UniProtKB/TrEMBL annotation:
Organism domain of life: Eukaryota
Keywords, in A-Z order: Disulfide bond
SUPFAM superfamilies for the chain: Trypsin-like serine proteases
Annotated Peptidase S1 domain residues: 1-185
Record bears the keyword Disulfide bond: yes
Xref: PROSITE patterns: TRYPSIN_DOM, TRYPSIN_SER
Protein name, as recorded: Peptidase S1 domain-containing protein
Single annotated GO MF: serine-type endopeptidase activity
Species whose genome carries this gene: Balaenoptera physalus
The organism's taxonomic lineage, starting at the top: Eukaryota, Metazoa, Chordata, Craniata, Vertebrata
InterPro entries: Peptidase_S1_PA (IPR009003), Peptidase_S1_PA_chymotrypsin (IPR043504), Trypsin_dom (IPR001254), TRYPSIN_SER (IPR033116)
GO biological process: positive regulation of apoptotic process; proteolysis
Family matches, as PANTHER family: GRANZYME A, KALLIKREIN-RELATED
Length: 188
């Protein structure tokens, strides 16, 4: 199986990371089994409340300077208020964590999209995003209450699991969901 065609989100902003998502069309249908499942999309594209426990999965590093994993791993992260993520102790508005982004990790550190542990259940995988993230988890799904709510975008380079740089995810907003539906309809 391979990627037949890529559909990058047309409003991606390289400077702000807004709209950092793309869809991938495979050369054939994936077989749904114990390792491959369909993630349900949100119906409304509304925000995820701070304090919500979510899961992220990926093949990236599970600690700073470690090699990328050849095993799919997962970690639980908590959604953090954007005001906290944008304050001086965190991203300090560089870049701005905007309304179309989710900030998640742990205020105590140690839990981030790059600090995933070996996955215990189904394989979770989505398409690659635009970002060239050194930790290797870019494009991984953020699943909150069983719903695919975001896509891993970035974190602080070299600061895996650092409480000052929680993971940042693209929120699957109403405009993103509309683009996904339209693109999938025309890609068939």
């Amino acid at each position: 199986m391979f990627v037949k065609k890529e559909f990058p989100y047309p409003c991606y902003d390289q400077d702000t990371h807004e709209g950092d998502l793309k869809l991938l069309k495979l050369n054939k249908k994936a077989t749904i089994n114990k390792n491959v499942a369909i993630l349900p999309l949100p119906k409304l594209g509304d925000d995820v409340k701070p304090g919500t426990m979510c899961r992220v999965a990926g093949w990236g590093m599970f600690r700073n300077n470690s090699p990328q994993s050849d095993i799919l791993r997962e970690v639980n992260v908590t959604v953090i208020d954007r005001k906290i993520c944008n304050d001086q102790r965190h991203y300090n508005y560089n870049p701005v964590i905007g309304l179309n982004m989710i900030c998640a990790g742990s205020l105590q550190g140690g839990r981030d999209s790059c600090s995933v542990s070996k996955i215990r259940s189904q394989t979770l995988a989505v398409g690659l995003s635009h970002a060239d993230v050194e930790n290797g988890d870019s494009g991984s799904p953020l699943i909150c209450e069983g719903i695919f709510r975001g896509i891993t975008a970035f974190g602080l380079p070299g600061k895996c699991g650092d409480p000052r740089g929680p993971g940042v995810y693209i929120l699957l907003s109403k405009k993103h969901l509309s683009w996904i539906a339209k693109t999938m309809k025309h890609a068939v």
